[in-house]
Amino acid sequence: MKKEVWAFIDSGNCSPAFNMALDEALLNWHSAGKIPPVIRFYGWQPATLSIGYFQKAEKEINLETVKELGLGFVRRPTGGRAVLHEHELTYSVIVTEEHPEMPKNVTEAYRVISEGILEGFRNLGFDAHFAVPKTEEERNALKEPRSSVCFDAPSWYELVVENRKVAGSAQTRQKGVILQHGSILLDLEDEKLFSLFRFSSDRVKERMMKNFKNKAVAINDLSDRTVTIEEAKQAFETGFAKGLNIELAPYTLSPEQLQEVQNLSKTKYETDEWNFMR
Prior knowledge:
Helix content is about 40%, strand content about 25%. It is an alpha/beta fold. It has one domain: 2-Layer Sandwich (BirA Bifunctional Protein, domain 2). It has a six-stranded mixed β-sheet, sandwiched between helices. Helix 1 packs across helix 9 (about 255-270) and helix 4 (about 105-125) packs across helix 8. The chain is globular and about 60 Å long. The protein starts with a strand and ends with a helix.
């Protein structure tokens, strides 16, 4: 049987506001039936701290340090906790809720989409598997996260290698469309990451950092060889194609589409009204 063809976009490194605006624009265009489902890869210029839609920026984030380190800052349209986008491959998946292969249940949709990420890790030679919280305590911890840091603990169906989280994802559903995007860590500077958050005391910060190192890991800390961004892109592009049983066809934005994204970037994701609304 002929496989369904999805669009594939590799945006390269873009500004934080442009990255979020393009994900939203793709959701809008797919909702309107203008484009097929999309797999998108991208990077960040400059390195950026993104926060989840519901996070309180000024309460949780050390904004002075973000500025001092020359990092970008943006609020995502998806939930979840803060992520430092630096040494990573970022992906997004845009697909209608009505797609025959997409479960209505949010958690199960995570599982289906994350099959592509799982296959990508396998392509790189890693024994990855899905995290499934087993105990009541673990499930409750997902509802009441102990820190503002995304990679502090795996959620349902996120990817773990050697019992540590290697990819973090967040999802939203708007206009009948699922947008899931996430980070696949190549390298991780945990001290830099933890300098970006507010803690009640240094003791709490140290404890959280120690805990974090036991729960999160980057690809290049898992093996003797170094995986480059290009190797990662190739592994996860073929991984998504296999995991979702689709074909990927390169897609280029038209000048009109590009202008629409730039307008959305300026009027929404670059504004303090959006980024500091909580």
